[in-house]
Amino acid sequence: MSEVGPEHLIGADVMAGLPREALAELAAFARHRRYGPDEVVFREGAEGDALQLVRSGTLKVVQEKRDADHVLQLLTPGDIFGELAVLNSTTRLASVIAADECETIEISKSDFDRVLHRHPQAVRKMLGGLARSLTLAKEELALHNRMLECRVEERTEEVRETQLEVVHRLSQAAESRDDETGRHIHRMSHLCAELGRAVGVSEEEVETLFHAAPMHDIGKICIPDRVLLKPGRLTAGEWKTMKAHTTRGAELLTGSRSSIVKMAEQVALTHHERWDGTGYPRGLKGTEIPLVARICAVCDVFDALMSVRPYKGAWTVEAALAEIERESGRHFDPALVAPAVQVLPRMDAWLAAAPGHPTGVGRPSRADAHAGSVLGGR
Question: Where are the extended beta strands (E) located within the chain?
Answer without folding.
Answer: 31-35, 40-42, 47-48, 50-56, 59-64, 69-75, 80-81, 90-91, 95-98, 102-108
